[in-house]
């Protein structure tokens, strides 16, 4: 019997791995062929508008664009399997090296934004459900409605105007003041962590002043979504018969709300929070642009404008890996919080 269950687990693991690989292959294939119809002349952008025809043709052939599309795709896949993701046209560096350099900045921003969004949004959602149709509920719903309705780039610009330009409470663009750049050794790529490891409190507080506003703006948008969903989940649970029975038995309202109702929505919230985090890591383009944040979103945007398929392909792959990983993590947490999901 034990051998049967072990074989069954291995079979499910193999099926999951195959599903992931097929998904990533389809993602790469779709992105590659869509990139072929992009109205961008990469060669002209590289050689400049004043280059002669010979230079243009030589660059065209050097990039392999004279080959049939199927051949180009096959060459790219074979190189990718060997770990060669190509050179970024924008920087001249290996694309993988560029991603390793810029991605920690987005992880740092997205993680702090998620902590703000979930740390405020979930408790507010619970409060709104408990105080349904009362003053607190109405106020919270107005706040979340603004988070959904007002464009995030407008909130970011107004935040810069008020808190940076007028009040001077926060830092401006970038991750740190210019005169602090390069003073801290890069260990994790997370400037807040690296500055603490180096014991440099001046760089740390400068980094805090620069990250707090973009993280709050990005977190506000996620807070609005998480708050509304938490409220909806909680209202559904608070209307169940087991909640009525608990109240009749004299269970305190705190235990009814947090130990009974909230406990049964944790699994639902896990997926929402995981997908929210994934969206932050790949979708913080506007925030990174407004705040000149040197992260993944800005890197992807710059290469999209250039039409650099080497960089775009790796970015798309990374986004796919992020969402697949977060979904698998959510499934694992399901089994921990709700053993009934284990088959």
UniProtKB/TrEMBL annotation:
<dbReference type="Pfam" id="PF19300">
    <property type="entry name" value="BPD_transp_1_N"/>
</dbReference>
<keyword id="KW-0813">Transport</keyword>
<dbReference type="GO" id="GO:0071916">
    <property type="term" value="F:dipeptide transmembrane transporter activity"/>
</dbReference>
<keyword id="KW-1133">Transmembrane helix</keyword>
<dbReference type="InterPro" id="IPR000515">
    <property type="entry name" value="MetI-like"/>
</dbReference>
<feature type="transmembrane region" description="Helical">
    <location>
        <begin position="211"/>
        <end position="229"/>
    </location>
</feature>
<comment type="similarity">
    <text>Belongs to the binding-protein-dependent transport system permease family.</text>
</comment>
<feature type="transmembrane region" description="Helical">
    <location>
        <begin position="269"/>
        <end position="291"/>
    </location>
</feature>
<dbReference type="InterPro" id="IPR045621">
    <property type="entry name" value="BPD_transp_1_N"/>
</dbReference>
<protein>
    <submittedName>
        <fullName>ABC transporter permease</fullName>
    </submittedName>
</protein>
<keyword id="KW-0472">Membrane</keyword>
<dbReference type="Pfam" id="PF00528">
    <property type="entry name" value="BPD_transp_1"/>
</dbReference>
<feature type="transmembrane region" description="Helical">
    <location>
        <begin position="142"/>
        <end position="167"/>
    </location>
</feature>
<feature type="domain" description="ABC transmembrane type-1">
    <location>
        <begin position="103"/>
        <end position="330"/>
    </location>
</feature>
<keyword id="KW-0812">Transmembrane</keyword>
<dbReference type="GO" id="GO:0005886">
    <property type="term" value="C:plasma membrane"/>
</dbReference>
<keyword id="KW-1003">Cell membrane</keyword>
<feature type="transmembrane region" description="Helical">
    <location>
        <begin position="311"/>
        <end position="334"/>
    </location>
</feature>
<feature type="transmembrane region" description="Helical">
    <location>
        <begin position="109"/>
        <end position="130"/>
    </location>
</feature>
<dbReference type="InterPro" id="IPR035906">
    <property type="entry name" value="MetI-like_sf"/>
</dbReference>
């Amino acid at each position: 019997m034990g051998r049967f269950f072990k074989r069954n687990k291995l079979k499910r693991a193999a099926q999951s791995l195959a599903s992931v690989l097929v998904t990533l292959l389809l993602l790469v294939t779709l992105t590659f062929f869509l990139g072929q119809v992009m109205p961008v002349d990469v060669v002209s952008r590289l050689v400049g508008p004043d280059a002669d025809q010979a230079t243009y043709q030589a660059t065209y052939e050097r990039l392999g664009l004279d080959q049939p599309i199927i051949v180009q795709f096959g060459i790219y896949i074979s190189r990718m399997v060997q770990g060669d993701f190509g050179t970024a046209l924008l920087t001249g560096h290996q694309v993988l090296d560029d991603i390793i350099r810029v991605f920690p900045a987005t992880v740092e921003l997205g993680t702090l934004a998620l902590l703000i969004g979930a740390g405020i949004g979930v408790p507010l959602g619970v409060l709104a459900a408990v105080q349904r149709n009362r003053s607190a509920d109405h106020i919270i719903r107005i706040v979340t409605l603004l988070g959904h309705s007002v464009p995030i780039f407008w909130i970011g610009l107004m935040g810069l105007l008020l808190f940076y330009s007028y009040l001077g409470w926060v830092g401006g663009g970038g991750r740190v003041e210019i005169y602090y750049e390069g003073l801290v050794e890069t260990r994790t790529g997370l400037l807040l962590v690296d500055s603490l490891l180096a014991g440099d409190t001046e760089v740390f507080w400068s980094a805090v002043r620069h990250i707090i506003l973009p993280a709050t703006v990005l977190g506000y948008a996620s807070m609005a979504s998480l708050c509304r969903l938490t409220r909806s989940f909680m209202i559904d649970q608070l209307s169940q018969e087991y909640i009525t029975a608990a109240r009749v038995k004299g269970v305190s309202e705190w235990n009814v709300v947090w130990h009974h109702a909230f406990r049964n929505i944790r699994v639902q919230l896990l997926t929402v929070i995981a997908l929210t985090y994934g969206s932050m890591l790949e979708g913080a383009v506007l925030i990174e642009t407004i705040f000149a944040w040197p992260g993944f979103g800005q890197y992807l945007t710059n290469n999209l404008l250039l039409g650099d398929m080497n960089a775009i392909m790796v970015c798309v792959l990374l986004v796919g890996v992020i969402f697949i990983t977060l979904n698998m993590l959510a499934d694992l947490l399901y089994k921990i919080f709700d053993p009934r999901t284990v088959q």
